[in-house]
Amino acid sequence: MSQPLGRLRGGADDAATRVLLLRHGESTWNADHRVQGQLDPPLSPLGREQSTKLAARLAREPIAALYASDLTRAAETARPLAAALGCEIRFCQDLREIALGEWEGRTSAELAREYPELWRRWQQEPDWDLAPGGEAAEAFGARTGRAFEAVTGAHPGQLIACVTHGGVIQALLRRVLGQSLHGWFHFRIGNASLTRLDYRAGRVTVAGVNDVCHLR
Fold first, then answer.
1. Distance (Å, rounded) from C-alpha 65 to C-alpha 85?
2. CATH code given to domain 11-99+136-215
3. CB count, 10 Å around CB of 93?
4. Are strands 17-23 and 194-200 parallel, antiparallel or unpaired?
5. Residue 198 is inside which H or E element, if any?
6. What residues are annotated to the active site?
7. Which residue among 63, 155, 184, 197 sits deepest, i.e. has the most Cβ atoms within 10 Å of its Cβ?
């Protein structure tokens, strides 16, 4: 699913707190198809290019605050945007990706060989709780929800950008839509994509998902 965000200024959204959820650019492990979790690979050359394009897309938007996960791939994605906006990056550990325990650093081929039964179950129906030694899905959901309640509470009626991870954005979308944190992932969240949530009067609207128009 890819839905453009459209015009970010003005109109009926003025009273809303708008949050741009930005997934980091391609990392070296994305390129190698390795599970990342909370391990810390940097951006690939393509990821750095994507981050520059993302910054150019948002450079003229009235972004009041820029938050980012403190993992390297998110920090490196946030820096060009911070430079374009002339603002600081506010790092937040609660914006980190879900920890995936023993699966981190492994490719799908390695997982199939080393964890055949768990990997078979993942292929049938993905569930973060299958990763041995990983962060529980419910704890992950609580952590990410807590982060965004804090961010939106600090900036009422403003536009905020958060550079984070695919799993974080998935978890927030599931929470907003009342979906379980377990089972199939219903949204594609591409590298350097934009997803927007609008908060108004205690309600949340999904205003756009996986916008990658700036990468074309």
1. 10
2. 3.40.50.1240
3. 11
4. antiparallel
5. strand 194-200
6. 24, 97
7. 197
Local structure of 47: helix, strand or coil: helix
Q: Could you tell me the two tokens for 126? A: 């993905």
Among residues 53, 105, 51, which one has the least CA distance to residue 76? 51
Per-position pLDDT tens, the chain of length 216: 444 444 444 344 458 999 999 999 999 999 999 999 999 999 999 999 999 999 999 999 999 999 999 999 999 999 999 999 999 999 999 999 999 999 999 999 999 999 999 999 999 999 999 999 999 999 999 999 999 999 999 999 999 999 999 999 999 999 999 999 998 888 899 999 999 999 988 889 999 999 999 999
Give the amino acid at 90: R
143/82 Cα distance (integer angstroms): 25
